[in-house]
Amino acid sequence: MGEASGPFVYFPMVYSRCAEVSAGAARIAAEHGLVCFDPQLGVLRPAPDEL
Q: How far is 33 from 2, CA to CA, in rounded Å?
């Protein structure tokens, strides 16, 4: 949990897998009633099934 800071968890990912990993993170967050924020775009990221 070295990437946790208060109510946030940051996790780095390699660019070549960013679409796959960020979709999975958004899905898992939604399943747990949480939100996924994309700091590069500055927006909340919807779960893949909400697109």
A: 22
As given in the structure block, the two tokens for residue 40 are 């590069």
Q: Are 8 and 25 in contact (CB under 8 A)?
A: no
Q: Say how far apart CA 47 and CA 10 lie, in whole Å.
A: 17
- Nearest of 36, 10, 11 to residue 23 by alpha carbon: 36
Residue 48's pLDDT is what? Answer: 62
Q: pTM for the full model? A: 0.67
Tell me whether residue 26 is exposed, middle or buried, using C-beta atoms within 10 angstroms of its C-beta: 0 to 12, 13 to 18, 19 or more.
buried
The identity of residue 31, as a single letter, is: E
